């Protein structure tokens, strides 16, 4: 664990250091490194010598050996935080006891949690936040359902939940994300 902390500390120091050189650790590089790409497209991340001819590059690329250590380390940390899905219950306001799992409200929320892959999206958020230092969780209703919502066409909890989507956004949500 101490080695992982040292690695992450070193990565954060590199992130905070403003460097405009080709060796700078940009967000794009951090994301690629976390996903196991240490070379980059057209060897953009490679800091050593690169052969000049395409034939030599092809042969040279076969000899490159990289060991993906960042991604698996981050996955272990995420697994430690979010390895097992939470056990939860629904306790209506003023009620003394939680509703049983067979209750239609609990069933609807459980189905949405599973079908929207809310737990998987939380894991993506944790991975991305560790890799990039920031991330956003977007909870939204796609534009396709806006008219239904305005007309009051959906009146039950299950139907309303089916329209709620969640997604991890790796960068600050400054651009138009559309319907994801």
Primary descriptors:
47% helix, 8 helices, 2 strands, 180 residues, elongated, mainly alpha, two-stranded antiparallel ribbon
What does this structure look like?
With 180 residues, this protein is mostly helical. It contains eight helices and two strands. It is elongated and about 70 Å long.
Total strands: the figure is 2
| Strands side by side in the biggest sheet | 1-2
Low-confidence stretches: 172-177
Mean pLDDT: 82
Q: Helix tally?
A: 8
Determine the oligomeric state from the structure.
Answer: single chain
Gross geometry: elongated
Rg, alpha carbons:
22 Å
Give the CA-CA distance, first to last residue: 35 Å
Helix content: 40-55%
Give the secondary structure arrangement, pairings included.
Elements lengths: L1 H15 L10 H8 L19 H10 L6 H13 L21 H12 L2 H15 L3 E5 L5 H6 L5 H6 L2 E5 L11
Helix pairs in contact: 4-6
Task: Provide a compact summary of the structure.
With 180 residues, this protein is mostly helical.
